[in-house]
Fold:
Amino acid sequence: MKRKKIILTSIVAAVFITAGIMYAADHVDTPAVTSQPSDITDLYVFRAVDPANLVFVANSQGLTSPANSATLKFDANTILEFNIDKTGDNIEDLVIQCKYDAASNKMQIYGPIAPSATGTKSKLEGNLTAEVAVTAYGSNVVSGTGTTGIKAFAGTRDDPFFFDLNRYKAILAGSAPGFTAQGSDTFAGTNVLSVVLEVPKSLIGATGNINVWLETKKKI
Amino acid sequence: MKTPIKIIAFIFAGSFFIISCKKNDTAPVVIDYYEQQDQMARPAINTVFVTAPTDKDLFNTTIPSAMGSMFQSKFQTRLLALNSGYTTNALGQNAATLTGLLATDVMGVSTTGVTTFFDGTNILTGRALADDVIDVELLLIFGGPTGTSNPGLTKDNVNANDKAFLTSFPYLANPW
Structure:
């Protein structure tokens, strides 16, 4: 058994050494987006305390130290877009778009709304449905509620993701046989830039299962 | 993409004279377009299953409905490289079924029930902040049909976030 495990670990290691340094969730996952405002770290979608609502969380720009958090900024040229498929074909039937307005320092929310076109290219759809001033680092939470009942937050948060990534990398590199009995959270003490939306389920208008994914899109 | 920009520029230029004469006219609306840079749904999929840097960028700029045909076989190769002894996992999925599911990177969310990545009963009905998503994925990749294979690789023993989540909006903990 032990021998088998060592062999497996070696195979794993051999594969990963060629793959280079690994990151987790979606933190700094690719050459093109690493260190860019468009770098998504995580998507969360869950039922709110009020079960009539769903919460959508878009995190970006992860692994930010407290020292660097005060200067963390949303980018006016990058929109965060939640895509919602209601029919199971993995094509968006609704989008919720988050656009940062630098002049007012507000996050502006559009949708949920059926987009005029699906795919890799988007424009802002319909009218503003909610907006919220960005909560400054170290300040109390500012939230805003739009006329359709969407509650919005934008600002720096503790990264909710947890994983012993360093140990994982050591396993892949062949220098550790497996995880330790007491893992160490590589993401402890780091922050992300978050947009949190609490959306009435009635605005999505689906009963049962939906498919959700998050995209960042940059102005062209 | 160049063409619409030119058209917009042309419309704008054409309207300029009129605007300058008639103060009360509203300025023409220039529509901004945005192009996909990054995409994600389920945690760690691109990082774990896509290896070549060019493929990572390609995966991020591909729409989910096109991902399956482009990436399923690469995901399967990767899965078997990670765990050459893979047969099925605790959900009874063989390599083709699991990678077919994962290659289309969308997150299933229940609009009626419990929302969780996996809570022992419900599977892939959302992702809550406290969900130990990495352990779920490690178990499905390395745990074999009963979840007991490769015990050193199926959980990282980091079971919770380093800060307590808030019980009300915005739910995520204050920054460090």
Observations:
- DSSP finds four helices and eleven strands in chain A.
- The helical segments of chain A are 2-19, 66-69, 165-172, 201-204.
